Amino acid sequence: MKLNFGCGKDIKKGWVNVDFQKAKNIDNSFDFSKYPYPFKDDTFSYVLIDNVLEHLNNPQKVMQEIWRISKNKGVVEIIVPYYNSYYAYADPTHVNFFNEKSMLQTLGFVNYNHIIQKEKFEIIELISVPQRFIKWLPKVILNALKRVFGNIIVELRVKAKVIK
């Protein structure tokens, strides 16, 4: 089974489409800040979280729940606006801002935590997506520019494997 988490109007056929709002073709509506989510453990082999995490107050807890409802070796795909892009600040409902480091921390990769987190993910890919008019620049130059100038990178795309 595949989960389209925070589907909005992007209803995918053959997927379980969930959102906080109720609408036609949304399979389940619930508050994403109330835990546990209304799914059994080890239900989904693929979870898409497309432009949702930036709207939620506790993305670490959300990812722990996603881990719980995902199967071992299931894939979680996350898309968020990059922290200093125009798109990150264009929507006043965004409460979190992500770069590569904060995304890794959201997935449990932290060096300062004394408690070992049981929810483990293996990064398959972590891609910084640049503005379309500068995609041709070499990655080393893009990496330097993104630290100085805003709106060079517009979104972060992550694929991670659930490890149980």
Rg over CA atoms, rounded to whole Å, is 16 Å
Q: How are the strands of the largest sheet arranged? A: 3-2-1-4-5-7-6
Largest sheet report: 7 strands, mixed
CATH superfamily placement: Vaccinia Virus protein VP39
User: What's the total count of β strands?
Assistant: 7
Distance between the termini: 18 Å
Tally of DSSP helical segments:
4
Q: Which structural category do the helix and sheet elements fall into?
A: alpha/beta
What labels would you give this structure?
4 helices, 164 residues, 7-stranded mixed β-sheet, alpha/beta, Rossmann fold, globular
Structure in words:
The chain is an alpha/beta fold. It has one domain (2-163): Rossmann fold. 20% of the residues lie in helices and 31% in strands. It is built from 4 helices and 7 strands, in the order ββββαβααβαβ. The protein has helices at 59-69, 86-90, 100-106, 139-148; strands at residues 2-5, 16-19, 28-29, 44-50, 70-81, 120-130, 153-163. The protein has a 7-stranded mixed beta sheet with strand order 3-2-1-4-5-7-6. α1 links the parallel β4 and β5 (70-81). It is globular and about 45 Å long. The two termini are 18 Å apart. The mean pLDDT is 94.
Question: How are the SSEs ordered, and which strands pair?
Answer:
Layout: E1 2-5, E2 16-19, E3 28-29, E4 44-50, H1 59-69, E5 70-81, H2 86-90, H3 100-106, E6 120-130, H4 139-148, E7 153-163
Parallel strand pairs: 1-2, 1-4, 2-3, 4-5
Antiparallel strand pairs: 5-7, 6-7
